[in-house]
C-alpha cells in the first residue's frame, strides 16, 4: 500500500513566515542591498499599495507564500534530487567511474580549482543530473489554465479558454514512446549525439516556456557544485538499511524516509 506525502500544516507555514519576516526586518535595519531574492521581496512589499498590485489582488500573504515556495523548491527539492542521484550512482559503479574520470580531468585542467565559470564543462555530470530528474520526477505534473481558445491539427484537439490542463511529467518521463528502456538509469541518453533526439516536450522536469520553474538555473548550478565537491574526495555505498521509497503526494514525490547510504573516502585520484 502506497503512503502519501503529508500536507504541510498551518503551523509549519506560520513558523516559516514568522522567521522570514525577522530576516526582512533585519535586512531593512542593516541598510544592506545584497541584490538577492530578499531584496526582491522587500521591493514587492513596498509596492503592495500600488494600483497594479491591487488589480492583481496581490497581498502580503501572496508574497510570503511565494517565498515559502522558493524555499521549498530551492532547498528541499535540490536535496531530494541529490539523494536519489547519490543512490543511483552507488548502484552503478560504471557510472561512478565515468564521473570520477570527468571530475579528475576537470580538476587537472583548472589546477585543482572548482570555479563556477567552468561548470558547464562537466557534460557527463550534467547528463547524470538530467537522467536523475527524468527517472524520478519530483514534480508529478504541470498544471496550467488556458487563456484563449486553442486548437491543434485542424481541430483534432481543442482547448477552451479557462480550461485547466494537467501535463503528466512522471508518465511522460517513463514512457516507452519517448525513451528506450525507460526504467533503466542511463545518463548516456543525455549526452551529445543522443540528447538531441529526445522530444523537447518529453523532458520537462522544470516545465517549459515563460512559466518554467524559476529555480531551474539555480538547481543545475548548485547541484553541479555540490556534486564536484563531494565526488572529488568521497563516494557512496549502499548498506543493509538503504532503500528507495519515494511517497507520492498531490503534486510532488518525496522521500519522507531517510536515504541511508555509507559515505566513504574516494580511492586515491590518479
* CATH level 1 class label: Mainly Alpha
Number of helices: 8
Fourth-tier CATH superfamily name: Cytochrome P450
CATH architecture: Orthogonal Bundle
Structure description:
This protein has a single domain, classed as Cytochrome P450 (Cytochrome p450). The protein has helices at residues 10-30, 37-46, 51-55, 60-91, 93-109, 123-135, 169-173, 216-233, and strands at 141-145, 150-152, 157-159, 164-168, 234-238, 247-248, 253-254, 261-265. Mean pLDDT is 86; it is low at 1-6. The chain is globular and about 60 Å long. Strands 1-4 form a two-stranded antiparallel ribbon. Strands 2-3 form a two-stranded antiparallel ribbon. Helix 4 (60-91) crosses helix 6. It contains 8 helices and 8 strands, in the order H-H-H-H-H-H-E-E-E-E-H-H-E-E-E-E. The longest helix has 32 residues, at 60-91. The chain is mostly helical and 270 residues long. 45% of the residues lie in helices and 11% in strands.
Write the layout of secondary structure elements.
Blueprint: H1 10-30, H2 37-46, H3 51-55, H4 60-91, H5 93-109, H6 123-135, E1 141-145, E2 150-152, E3 157-159, E4 164-168, H7 169-173, H8 216-233, E5 234-238, E6 247-248, E7 253-254, E8 261-265
Antiparallel strand pairs: 1-4, 2-3, 5-8, 6-7
Helix pairs in contact: 1-2, 4-6
